[in-house]
């Protein structure tokens, strides 16, 4: 009987519990299918620090090699380091990680040559179909000449590429954060940055990327440990940045940065330990990327980023482009429009100069450069890019997702000044506020995001929408 992969093949990747939902034997079949669908003669693979990752990654390589494909293994790496290898070598790639999921999970993020995404509409459905067929009928016979499996270290090259895209040589600590405690005390010469790697791959990449930079690095949880002994490696959940916030205050640091498990997302806190919204980071980096490109260019943002983002883009000469939520939509629009940068509310940041792929590390370097290039503290710097009051994402369990969306539209449509669109779920907006409600693809949830010009208006519209959503 063919395996049912519906529980582990998601919209953008493979992800499930090991060994209950998938194991090395399935990983080997995925390797064969990936090679066939991409038609590649050579592929590159990498893996995170989870206990199951090396075995799954090698099984995938073994399957591909048995069918005549050469495999370059870059070993331990962050997801954006794998994207770097795919882009620099112009090869399809596969990264073994389950990102921020608990230790028992693992997965595969796949891309075509040049880090082009592989999702349901761009090869993942075909890969799934082949693996399901082969679990029933058997995999095709091996190639007469098997491929080779070789190892290559890309960490230094990855770090050098990132540093080539941001000038960090002249950054200095904000004067306002380091007033002398006594007469004649000298001002520190470096920014102080606390970085929480969450026992994930940031602990592997940050020391090399930051090496030689004018930054006093305070590391937290840099020990690679796929059991995540200190906290989940998901910085978007407020409980997982509490340690970082406390350490920033204790150290009187200029900035705190948290990475997720595979270190492709970064989250920032200011000198007071207060979270900086990913929309503000998107706007800040967009302004810097536009300056790098002569004040012209398209900036992609998904439809639940703050109003601040398109405003800042226009103010800096750029053209904002609004997309659905999800990295495959962002990357496709980046390629279609030739956009120079894109950002999401989930702290994914995409760069034209990084093959349109997402890299939280490059976004972090931009924030450090922006902070160190002026005299004020981070809280003052980002205030310019954080102009509205947002609700954050609020999830509600519902029995009838579409029915609730219809009820929402009926309740708001026709009111004076109200506009609606259905690019992704339902967006309702006026000149003073907006909200979006999107159904989850995998759970019986509706996700609400709301924003307004002030707290009272945001709370009012949030609560009205929630009352309809929850019936």
From TrEMBL:
Cofactor dependency: Mg(2+)
Domain Alpha-D-phosphohexomutase alpha/beta/alpha: 7-136, 185-273, 283-388
Entry superkingdom: Bacteria
Alpha-D-phosphohexomutase C-terminal domain residues: 393-467
Presence of the UniProt keyword Metal-binding in the record: yes
InterPro entries with a match to the protein in the record: A-D-PHexomutase_a/b/a-I (IPR005844), A-D-PHexomutase_a/b/a-I/II/III (IPR016055), A-D-PHexomutase_a/b/a-II (IPR005845), A-D-PHexomutase_a/b/a-III (IPR005846), A-D-PHexomutase_C (IPR005843), A-D-PHexomutase_C_sf (IPR036900), Alpha-D-phosphohexomutase_SF (IPR005841)
UniProt keyword annotation of NAD present: no
Gene Ontology MF term list: intramolecular phosphotransferase activity; metal ion binding
Family: Belongs to the phosphohexose mutase family.
Protein name: Phosphomannomutase/phosphoglucomutase
Provenance organism: Streptomyces colonosanans
């Amino acid at each position: 009987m063919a395996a049912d992969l519906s529980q582990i093949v998601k919209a953008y990747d493979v992800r499930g519990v090991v060994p209950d939902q998938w194991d090395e034997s399935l990983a080997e079949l995925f390797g064969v299918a990936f090679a066939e669908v991409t038609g590649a003669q050579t592929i590159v693979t990498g893996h995170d620090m989870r206990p199951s990752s090396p075995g799954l990654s090698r099984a995938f390589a073994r399957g591909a090699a048995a069918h005549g494909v050469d495999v370059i293994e870059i070993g331990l790496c962050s997801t954006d380091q794998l994207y770097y290898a795919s882009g620099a070598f112009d090869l399809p790639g596969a990264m073994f990680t389950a990102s921020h999921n608990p230790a028992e999970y693992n997965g595969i993020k796949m891309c075509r040559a040049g880090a082009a995404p592989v999702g349901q509409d761009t090869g993942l459905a075909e890969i799934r179909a082949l693996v399901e067929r082969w679990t029933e009928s058997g995999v095709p016979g091996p190639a007469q000449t098997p491929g080779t499996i070789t190892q290559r270290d890309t960490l230094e090259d990855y770090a050098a590429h990132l540093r080539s895209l941001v000038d960090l040589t002249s950054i200095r600590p904000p004067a306002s954060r380091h007033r002398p405690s006594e007469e004649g005390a000298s001002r520190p010469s470096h920014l102080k940055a606390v970085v929480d790697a969450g026992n994930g791959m940031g602990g592997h990449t940050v020391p090399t990327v930051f090496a030689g930079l004018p930054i006093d690095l305070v590391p937290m949880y840099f020990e690679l440990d796929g059991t995540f002994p200190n906290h989940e490696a998901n910085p978007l959940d407020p409980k997982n940045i509490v340690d970082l916030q406390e350490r920033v205050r204790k150290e009187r640091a200029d900035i705190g940065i948290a990475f997720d498990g595979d270190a492709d997302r970064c989250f920032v806190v200011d000198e007071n330990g207060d979270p900086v919204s990913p929309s503000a980071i998107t706007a800040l980096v967009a302004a810097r990327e536009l300056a790098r490109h002569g004040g012209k260019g398209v900036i992609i943002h998904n439809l639940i980023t703050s109003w601040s983002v398109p405003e800042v883009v226009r103010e800096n000469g750029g053209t904002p482009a609004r997309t659905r939520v999800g990295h495959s939509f962002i990357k496709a629009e980046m390629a279609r429009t030739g956009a120079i940068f894109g950002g999401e509310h989930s702290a994914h940041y995409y760069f034209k100069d990084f093959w349109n792929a997402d890299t939280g590390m490059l976004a972090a370097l931009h924030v450090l450069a922006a902070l160190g290039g002026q005299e004020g503290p981070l809280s003052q710097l980002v205030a310019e890019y954080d102009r509205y009051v947002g609700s954050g994402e609020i999830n509600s369990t519902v029995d009838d997702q579409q029915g609730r969306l219809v009820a929402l539209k009926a309740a708001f449509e026709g009111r004076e000044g109200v506009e609606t669109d259905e690019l992704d779920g339902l967006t309702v907006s006026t000149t003073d506020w907006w909200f979006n409600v999107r159904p989850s693809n995998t759970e019986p949830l509706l996700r609400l995001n709301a924003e307004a010009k002030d707290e009272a208006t945001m709370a009012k519209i949030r609560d009205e929408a929630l009352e309809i959503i929850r019936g």
